[in-house]
Amino acid sequence: MAILGMSLAMVAVFVGFGLLIGTLFGFFGMGGSFLVTPALLVMGYSSTVAVGSGLAFVFGTSVIGALRHRDHGQVDYKLAAIMTAAMTIGIEAGKSVVFFLEATGRADLIINVAYVGLLATVGAFTLRDARSTSTGDDGHDLADRVQSIHIPPMVTFRGGVRVSGAIVFAVGLVIGVLSGFLGVGGGFLLMPAMMYGLGIPAAIAVGTDILQITISGAFGAFTYAQSGSVALPVVAFLLLGSALGARVGAGATNLVDEDDIKGYFAAMLLAGSLAVASNKLGSVYGIELLNTMSTALIFGSALLVSAAVVLAAVCQLRDDGHGTWCRLVGS
Amino acid sequence: MFGIESASASVQAGITVGTVLAEAIALYLAYGALSETVGATVLDALGGD
């Protein structure tokens, strides 16, 4: 039996994978294209279809996530507007850098090294923050310093955070340049930048990040769909799972103290950087084992972190901090 | 001719993005209705009540 030209087994794989990604996306506001595109490449889709379908899926999931976060009052439209404007300009600048590097013939090497380096840096920073929080240090030194800079116009965001609009624009511009340069959505950079750099409360940073991803995802999906590079049945089944997962993940943000999960998230980013590095080394030197290790790292860490989110939410519901499993995700 | 082709590609792309948007909104509403109906029961069951 086939649905939309797909076997039932493949339908189950896509729905299940969507559920996993949706949970991560709803909770952290990122992890979409970072996981879907490699998965579709592993399944044998061409790189343009993998990227195009990944973007269309990220767009659909982020629509659901943004609606959900809006219902909880966790979206700051002012912040999203400034970030979107700055990132759009930045992405164009980032693309120009790629074209320049392509002309020199070193684009691939530099982009991959930058990608691995950034994932590792953000992962290490998040891990450091998680450890400083658990040792009682509030870990907001950078945000405090940024908020103390009074360059007009000063803008007040949800949660009472007051930051210079010029600094917010500059942060968006830098993230945009990096997104355009690396060819990624930027969620994994935008969310930590808003939280740690600007001091925006975690739930509002996630909600605003998702709204921004919705806008850029729609634009990206449209661009790829123009050349027919979006596999709609794949996107449809992934969305079926992720719509439920996004609800679970967004609901969990109201239950789980995100400091409890930060360590896992940092581990996922570090595993991601290792995965990209081993994939590239595997391709360059023709070592299949490294490519397999890369896939296992991406899916293993995604599965582990989404399971940790769900487990932490269930433990919170049960008010259980002492059970064997609950102690694993407790602070 | 190129203009017509690119216009038709844009229309097709618009339909694709619109389809994804429609599915996302439909799923949001459907799962929302489902969680209204059985959400409390599931949360109670998970919470051990």
Q: List the secondary-structure elements of chain B in sequence, H or E.
A: H
Q: Could you tell me which chain pair has the largest interface and how many residues each side has?
A: A-B, 30 and 24 residues
Q: Determine the oligomeric state from the structure.
A: heterodimer
> How much is the radius of gyration of chain B in Å?
20 Å
What's the Cα radius of gyration of chain A? Answer: 19 Å
Unreliably modeled segments of chain B: none
Mean pLDDT of chain A: 81
Helix content class of chain B: over 70%
Extended strand count of chain A? 4
Structural classification of chain A = mainly alpha
Task: Characterise this structure.
The complex is a heterodimer of chains A (331) and B (49). Chain A is mainly α. Chain A has helices at residues 8-28, 33-42, 47-71, 77-104, 107-134, 141-147, 165-182, 187-198, 202-225, 232-253, 258-285, 288-318, 324-329; strands at 2-3, 6-7, 154-157, 161-164. Chain A has one domain (2-329). Chain A is built from 13 helices and four strands. In chain A, a hairpin with a 3-residue loop joins strand 3 (154-157) and strand 4. Chain A starts with a strand and ends with a helix. By secondary structure, chain B is an all-alpha fold. Chain B has a domain at 21-49. Chain B contains one helix and no strands. Chain B is rod-shaped, with a radius of gyration of 20 Å. Chains A and B meet through helix 3, helix 9, helix 10 and helix 12 of A and helix 1 of B.
Q: What is the element layout, followed by pairings?
A:
The complex is a heterodimer of chains A (331) and B (49).
Chain A: E1 2-3, E2 6-7, H1 8-28, H2 33-42, H3 47-71, H4 77-104, H5 107-134, H6 141-147, E3 154-157, E4 161-164, H7 165-182, H8 187-198, H9 202-225, H10 232-253, H11 258-285, H12 288-318, H13 324-329
Antiparallel strand pairs in A: 1-2, 3-4
Chain B: H1 2-47
Main traits of this protein?
heterodimer; A: 331 residues; mainly alpha; two-stranded antiparallel sheet; 13 helices; 4% strand; B: 49 residues; 94% helix; 0% strand; rod-shaped
